[in-house]
Task: inverse folding
């Protein structure tokens, strides 16, 4: 359980999901159709990654990256 307001970063999220389904980095890369280097950079929190490839990986877990309001009410 995380403290209220806690936001897990993408790197931690992907690593946690990968481990929960017992995949190695090379296995995840193969299943997602991306390179092993990309998975390593993603899990290490590289700041600039191709969004389409991030979504390829996240789709395996039923997720995707999208635009969300930075603050409540920011979308109005």
Result:
């Amino acid at each position: 359980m995380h403290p209220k307001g806690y936001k897990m970063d993408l790197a931690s999220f992907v690593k946690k999901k990968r481990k929960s389904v017992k995949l190695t980095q090379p296995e995840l890369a193969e299943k997602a159709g991306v390179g092993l280097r990309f998975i390593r950079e993603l899990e290490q929190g590289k700041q600039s990654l191709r969004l389409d490839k991030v979504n390829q990986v996240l789709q395996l877990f039923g997720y995707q990256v999208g635009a969300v309001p930075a603050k409540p009410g920011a979308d109005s």
Remarks:
- The CA atoms of residues 4 and 72 lie 16 Å apart.
- The mean pLDDT is 86.
- The two ends are 32 Å apart (CA to CA).
- Helices lie at 10-20, 25-32, 36-43, 51-59.
